[in-house]
Write a structure and sequence with these properties.
Order of helices and strands: HHHHHHHHHHH
Helix content: 55-70%
Radius of gyration: 47 Å
Distance between the termini: 88 Å
Shape: elongated
Number of strands: 0
Largest sheet: none
Length: about 325
């Protein structure tokens, strides 16, 4: 990258020495073979922006890169090379303090979300157009159109790089001023300890916040699962066994009653209790008559099946 930067600087020096571009000429006055040299300030800005952090001050590199991008856009605007879609960004980029060479001298250039989307889509369109032109016959008209497309694409990228470099320059300048203040006060170690304590406190608060959010999320998930289980719950009580299982149960009960009756013997089966509880008994025993009447009254007050009315879905 160091060699590339040196070559770009040498090319810029040769262009200036030869007077390849004049201040009063437009894009129609520039020859097709010379249009590619308009991109030299843009390439120099890229070299400054991607330079090795160990080579010199990063703040100076960022300011130099921003200056190169601004000079590139200004020269393209003066020559009338830029398309109409670049006019708003060009005016904001070169508006206030545009004559300076630093990255923070002018008005901060900020892009809204819609502007970023529009720039991205326009860049994709220009790149697709360049790809289609590169496949055509290499005549002068196609070469000139290809140079114009490449210059406009580079100008859009230069505006975006310029905006990001302005923010980086602000951060680097703030850091540099803080380091100077720390050196003047002599409290570098105390400041570092305070910063570490602040970071630890922020980390502790974040852990507590994450723990509370996790417990709240678990509670919400449990409630959600409980509500989801009750969505399709029927309005009536579901049976606990099938008809076959109920029949087998009744069969076992009948067999048990039969065994108990056989174990009691024939003398006990015709006792007073059986006679009073039998429907075919016509005895005049007062106790049996009383029980029979009470049973008839109970059946009149509670008809067959009335006890299951609440279990019906529409009851």
């Amino acid at each position: 990258l160091k060699n590339v930067e040196a070559d770009v600087v040498a090319c810029l020096r040769m262009v200036s020495t030869l007077g390849l571009f004049s201040d009063n000429e437009s894009k129609d006055d520039i020859t097709t073979s010379s249009m590619k040299y308009l991109l030299l300030p843009y390439y120099l800005g890229l070299c400054h922006m991607h330079a090795d952090p160990g080579r010199g001050d990063r703040l100076e590199r960022c300011e130099a890169a921003a200056g190169c991008f601004r000079d590139f856009v200004r020269e393209c605007a003066d020559k009338g090379v830029l398309e109409d879609a670049m006019k708003p960004f060009e005016e904001r980029m070169l508006g206030d303090g545009g004559s300076g060479s630093g990255g923070g001298g002018g008005t901060p250039l900020r892009f809204s979300r819609d502007e970023k989307i529009a720039l991205y889509r326009r860049q994709k369109e220009l790149q697709q157009h360049m790809a289609s032109l590169s496949r055509l016959e290499a005549d002068e008209e196609n070469a000139r159109s290809l140079h114009l497309l490449r210059i406009n694409t580079s100008a859009m990228l230069a505006c975006q790089h310029y905006a990001s470099l302005q923010q980086e320059c602000e951060l680097l300048a703030f850091q540099k001023e803080r380091e100077k203040a720390m050196e003047r006060s002599g409290g570098a170690q105390a400041f570092a300890a305070q910063e570490a304590a602040r970071r630890e406190e922020r980390a502790r608060q974040q852990r507590e916040t994450f723990a509370s959010l996790k417990s709240a999320a678990a509670t919400l998930q449990a409630d959600r699962e409980r509500f989801a289980q009750g969505v399709f719950k029927p309005s009536h009580i579901l049976p606990t066994m099938t008809v076959e299982e109920f029949g087998e149960l009744e069969l076992r009960r009948m067999q048990e009653r039969e065994r108990e009756r056989q174990q009691q013997g024939p003398g006990q089966q015709g006792g007073r209790g059986d006679r009073c509880c039998s429907d075919d008994d016509h005895s005049e025993d007062e106790e049996c008559v009383k029980k029979a009447r009470e049973w008839d009254d109970f059946k009149d007050d509670n008809p067959f099946g009335s006890g299951n009315s609440k279990l019906r879905p529409c009851g």
